[in-house]
Amino acid sequence: KQGKEKGIEEKDGLITFKDEDGNYKTKGEVKVGALCEKHYINVDDYAETAIYKLQIDHNNKTKKEAWQKALEGKDKKTPLYLLVEGHTVPGQEEININYHGDSEGGEIRGEAIKNLWLDSDGNWFELKRKIKWHNPVLNPQVRGRYAIWAPERSIHSNNIKGRAKGKHDGLDLYAPEGTPLYAVVSGEIYDPYISGSYGNTLTIKGFYNGIEYYFFYAHLKDKVTYKSKDKVEVGDIIGYSGKTGSSAKNLKANQVHLHFEVRTKGTRTGNRVNPLEKIAELKTDVELNPKEKDQL
Predict the structure, then answer these.
(1) pLDDT at residue number 125
(2) Tell me: the pLDDT tens digits for 278-287?
(3) What is residue 46's three-state secondary structure?
(4) What b/e string do you get for 216-252 counting C-beta neighbours within 10 Å, with b at 16 or more?
(5) DSSP secondary-structure letter at 64?
């Protein structure tokens, strides 16, 4: 890795970035051999390559030549690089890193690069960030079909006309029998059990925005084979929608749904919060006014 090659100083240090006004005032720490931030999902694909190919300048000619030799050696692993310029100014120990931006036909265009990298074939690409959330079903929309068309009954609320006791503790998402259900976050299975009313259930214990929640899935088609503390990754298919439990067994095909809850504690009752208020992705992605023709 860069930073470990002979001629490059093997120690952590500070770098100073040149801002838009031409001032060197933004400092950051650089780690020897560091690749990039850990939250990139494909970071390991490039663990043995150099992210930065530096155009080094230094007022000490000998040091400059040593750095350039280390970076440009044919045996060095540098097929992947982001074009930048690095230099120091008199009386300053830190290296100043200037991003040159994209290039076209070998000419620097000077445009700012935001997470764009150049591969050995000269193609620019973007490192993929790790997914922190995945909706429990694809293209989520609330269940609309009851005895009448009433999608408003499917949200989390304590005041719902047409609901027994006027309340609903979760979010009912339209999911015809056999629809894949996904792990919404990475975490571990917590207390899977068979409920009289909810049928086959599964809970994922995990974090969202730094807060620990218990994400509850009900009416799964098949008995859950996961055990408590089994690990799951965000986006894993963890089961399929079904009609298990007394409240779902007599549903018509166009009424089958996933009952989904967000809980603050690992209890089988209580401690439920509104998913649409706590989870930003659900607030933006869930269709609250679905069309009847889409739930035939």
Answers:
(1) 58
(2) 999 999 999 9
(3) helix
(4) bbbbbbeebebeeeeebebeeebbbbbbbbebbeebe
(5) H
